[in-house]
Amino acid sequence: MERKKDKRNLDTKNKIVNGFKKIALKKPMNKITISELTKYCNINRNTFYYHFEDIKTLMEWILSSEITNILDNIDVKNTEKLLYSIFDYVEKNEKLLESAYSSFGREKLRKLLYPYFYNTLNNLIIEKNLTDIYDDKFKDFVINFYSGGIAYTIFDYIKKDNKEKEKIINFLLLMNKNIDLIIKSYY
Fold first, then answer.
1. Distance between CA 134 and CA 143 in Å, rounded?
2. 79-108 pLDDT, tens per residue?
3. What pTM, to 2 d.p., does this model score?
4. Could you tell me what percentage of the chain is helix, strand and coil, using 3-state DSSP and rounding each to the nearest 5?
5. Predicted pLDDT at 1
6. 47 falls in which pLDDT band (50, 70, 90)?
7. Residue 42 carries which DSSP code?
8. Alpha-carbon distances of 131 from 135, 177, 178, rounded to whole Å
9. Better pLDDT: 9 or 179
10. What is the rounded end-to-end Cα distance, in angstroms, of the chain?
């Protein structure tokens, strides 16, 4: 019985997410009301509130689950494939991300995405066996620097009409090659 309940909850959550995404294609996220969303999804308000606190937590859940899905289904050691997956996601969900950007603002969206970039870069450093070379403060500095750079690069990509994915990914790959060089030269 518990299994059916979990599946039903997930189905309802997905129904809300898909409805939200469809509405967000037409209008900014901060203009979408819970009433509008529940009517579109043919659910009551209590059902929405059972799953999400508000529209912002819905958007946070969408980004969190979708980014986690990307990271779970890719070898983070393959930086090129990881970057292509991220940029493919950005292209596929451009309107939704533009809406989130407009509604949250750059800094709030960066804070939302930051832990994923931080954890991914931290795992890359661990995979490169560079953890013994440097102290935690320097590691945090390097990861913060690159996480912020990647986040802002993605935001610029979302906001610009001219999308040069190949060029941007090649620049980011060049930066990735330099992480271990920077760390080694520091010590």
1. 12
2. 788 888 888 888 888 888 888 887 777 788
3. 0.76
4. 80, 0, 20
5. 42
6. very high
7. T
8. 8, 16, 16
9. 9
10. 58
Residues in the chain, total: 187
User: What's the token pair of residue 90?
Assistant: 């950005």
Query: Is 88 strand, coil or helix?
Result: helix
CA-only gyration radius of the chain, Å: 19
State the DSSP string of 69-126: HHHHTS-TT-HHHHHHHHHHHHHHTHHHHHHHHHHH-HHHHHHHHHHHHHHHHHHHHH
Cβ atoms within 10 Å, residue 51: 17
Output DSSP code: residue 26: T
Residue with tokens 């610029």: 156
Q: Which of 67-76, 125-134, 170-179 has the highest mean pLDDT?
A: 67-76
CA 129 to chain CA centroid, nearest Å: 26
Q: Which domains does the chain have, with CATH numbers?
A: 1-52 (1.10.10.60), 56-186 (no CATH)
